[in-house]
Amino acid sequence: MKQNSLFKKEIWDRLSKGKFISANSQEYQQRQLYNSLVENEAEYKSFFAEIGYTLDHGRDYYQFCREVTAENTDNSLNGLKKYLVLCNILKAWREDFFVGLDFRKTAFLEAIAEDPDLLLKVREFSKKENYKEIVSDILALLRQDGFIERKPDDEAETYFVTSAFNYIEDIFNNTIIYNEGQDDETFE
Fold first, then answer.
1. Long-range contact list for 82-87, CB < 8 A, 24+ apart?
2. How far is Cα 55 from Cα 34, in angstroms, rounded to an integer?
């Protein structure tokens, strides 16, 4: 066991909240956790399995996975649906929305103001009327879940797409969306 075993608590603290640990994070500590996971993956998997958690290694990210049961099926599906809608919005804005991309909130807002179809997609995400508030909510959610990070010391609100976005993108690319009888559910 390497000295990296000291990171069990830090890894637990992050992943147990449903967040991701990304290889390309702007945060030094998160990159350190990622490297420790890569170097000691079998040991971490064994440790977390003993306490009932499955450590999953995706494309340049780690997360905890749980078995879908009858009790948590609705929550799991609603979470996936929320991520599919978010990915659809982001890809409608920029087809090339990708891991490693830097983007400004103002560019996103300007695109929405100029594109009625994108505005409609954004408004379908929330019951709020003001699309600027909805965009703030979308960015806050993506940040909270670890899919984007705000660039430090940046008044222009520049964001960076982390490798955890691969999770959403993989689901999006492997999902056939069936629109007939679509409900008007929003994600607030």
1. 82/187, 83/167, 83/168, 83/171, 83/172, 84/168, 84/171, 84/172, 84/175, 84/177, 85/121, 85/124, 85/125, 85/187, 86/125, 86/138, 86/141, 86/142, 86/168, 87/168, 87/169, 87/171, 87/172
2. 12
140: Cα separation from own chain's centroid = 11
Distance from C-alpha of 113 to C-alpha of 171, rounded to nearest angstrom: 28
Q: Kindly report which listed range (48-57, 96-105, 166-175) carries the lowest average pLDDT score.
A: 166-175
Predicted structure pTM score: 0.83
Q: What is the sign, positive or negative, of the torsion defined by CA atoms of 102, 107, 93, 147? A: positive
How much is the pLDDT for 155?
82
- Enumerate residues 6+ apart whose C-beta is below 8 A from 35: 4
Q: What is the mean pLDDT of residues 38-46?
A: 95
Q: Tens digit of pLDDT for each residue in 60-79?
A: 999 998 776 767 777 777 77
| Strand arrangement, sheet containing 61-65 | 21-22, 61-65, 54-58
